[in-house]
Amino acid sequence: MRIVKAGKAQVGGIARLFDLYRQFYDCEPDLDAATAFIQARYDGDESTLFAAVDDDDVLGFTQLYPSFCSVELMKIYILYDLYVDAPFRQSGIGAALMDAAADWARANNAGRIDLLTAKDNITGQRLYERKGYEIANENFHAYSCYLDT
User: Fold this and answer.
1) Pairing relation of β-strands 48-54 and 57-69?
2) Which end of the chain has the least Cβ crowding within 10 Å, N or C?
3) How do residues 135-145 score in pLDDT, each as one tens digit?
4) Which of these, 84, 44, 63, 61, lies nearest to 10 by C-alpha position?
């Protein structure tokens, strides 16, 4: 197994896992929409994708979106997606993907990586805390405003 910055060859495998990831968050299965979304992010160079690969199989992925923090005057990345296929969990793949994301962010002059996770994702929270992430919501609430399109 190795971690690679995803290229065109990994998009289909990532899309399959992205569909499973969305199902984890109670979305209906929709491989076509998942594939279109990942393909658009890749084609538009709108995110950075890392894949855990074994031969041509994608075992896990993470997706980072660039952003900025005005208050701290720094570039940041949002680690929005992290998913490892069920048979390969507890094998260090999630940690390796997070390490690749941190290395990428540092190399691209970012000062921080942010992420959100479900309150009941205890396994993910343990990994994040092992990797040095701290709960940052003591001073802020996370809000979303859905826009009519």
Assistant:
1) antiparallel
2) C
3) 876 667 677 76
4) 61
DSSP-derived 3-state class of residue 133: coil
- Measured CA to CA, the distance from residue 83 to residue 22 in angstroms comes to 10
Q: How far apart are CA 29 and CA 50, in angstroms?
A: 22
Pairing of the two strands 110-114 and 74-84: parallel
With cut-offs at 50, 70 and 90, classify the pLDDT of residue 75.
Answer: very high
> Has residue 149 got a pLDDT over 80?
no
Taking phi over 0 as left and psi of -120 to 50 as alpha, with beta for the rest, 129 belongs to alpha
Q: In whole angstroms, what is the distance from residue 24 CA to residue 119 CA?
A: 13
Q: Is the pLDDT of residue 123 over 90?
A: no
* Under 8 Å between Cβ of 94 and 3: no
In the structure, what pLDDT confidence band is assigned to residue 118 with cuts at 50, 70 and 90? confident
Which residue has better confidence, 134 or 40?
Answer: 40
Strand arrangement of the beta sheet that strand 110-114 belongs to: 2-5, 48-54, 57-69, 74-84, 110-114
